[in-house]
Amino acid sequence: MQQTFKVMILGGYGNFGQLIATALSQEENISVIIAGRNENKAKALANQLNCRYVKLDVHQDDLVQTFHAHSVQLVISTVGSFQNQSYDMAQAAINAGIHYIDLADSREFVENIVQFDSIAKEKNLFICSGASTVPSLNSAVVNHFLSEYSQLNNIDIALSASEKVPGISTLSAVLSYCGQKFTMWKNQQWQEVYGLQNLTHQKFYHLPNKRWVGNCSVPDLALFPMNYPTVQQVTFKAGVGISIVQISSWFVSWLKRYHLIKEPLKHVDLFYKTAQKFERFGDGLSGMQVKLKGIDHQQQPLTINWEIIGYDNEGPNIPCFASIILARKLANQTIIQSGAFSSMNLITLDEYLTEFNTINVKTFTDKD
Q: What is the pLDDT of residue 367?
């Protein structure tokens, strides 16, 4: 009888955790364990998916002991926000001698996971941070089209979510850099910008209307200039589909920038409930645009615009797919590298497109 690959999902009944658990529980060679503080929620989902569960507080319980007790081989952490979070869960996985994947979207968190590279290689472990749209899907898109350029100059990414308010963890991540200073790579140098500012009325080729987007601090901003050495500019802006919500966020960023509000993150519950009141005005559409500019092999300017459009509020599900794909690869022993790294360059666009057949999204490629 084939031995199953045991995967524990921390926060397994949350927005992302539930989607990941549902997908992985359908694999014959994967055994899923739902883990979280709320035993009733963990048990209910486990019964629904016919898998195991465990009550677990990642901030109080002995994670190493729990991993050993359940013979876990891979732990997937969906427990955010990752901004200012410690590496306790990754460290516990390493100490337990098991693989680790998280869905972090924190620039610093994902960038600095490499501090565990030596010990992960020594123990032959796969320690991966940022298994999400940023930077995994975005790097897959860039890599897919990279061969068409003799020199890639610009990578400009814009994301506009639907009206559906993301989970508290995702909203907390955004508020953590609202009005805060960080850097973007522009004109071949690091330039200071502020979170949620430089508001732009962005045209998406395959959305019916323009969307408001502002500066967001994501791992791509730090990782892409190193990974693509010819690029002169890497930008990332994001927003939500309801204009008044995005413009209100922009206004709050100015309050934070000029110290008229001390810490927007403290008001996350209020922002969450307020944004929910506007959901009924949305159209269910999300869009992400990856625009590449450079010189082709005939020394002519080349612009490639790649977009993914999510319908019926499916867009927010896209970040889950990186961890699902990587978990399957580990279970099937098709991942051979060990170490600690970001999710960049680990998944191809073709692998993503295969997975996207399961949700209501479409992708488009336009070339100029």
A: 94
Q: Going by C-beta distance under 8 Å and a sequence separation of 6 or more, which residues neighbour residue 364? A: 205, 206, 306, 307, 308, 309
Q: Coil, strand, or helix at residue 235? A: strand
From the centroid of its chain, how far is CA 349?
A: 15
Q: Residue 166 has what pLDDT?
A: 66
- Which of 326, 339, 336, 327 shows the shortest CA–CA distance to 127? 339
Query: CATH code for 134-316+360-367?
Result: 3.30.360.10
Boundaries of every domain in the chain: 5-133+318-356, 134-316+360-367
Tell me the CATH number for domain 5-133+318-356.
3.40.50.720
Predicted confidence at residue 267, as pLDDT, reads: 79
Would you say the pTM of this structure is higher than 0.85?
Answer: yes
Q: Give residues with Cβ within 8 angstroms of 117, minimum separation 6.
A: 127, 339, 340, 341
Write out pLDDT tens, residues 246-293. Answer: 999 999 999 999 999 888 878 778 877 887 787 777 788 999 999 999
* Pairing mode of beta strands 30-36, 52-55: parallel
Residue type, position 7, single letter: V
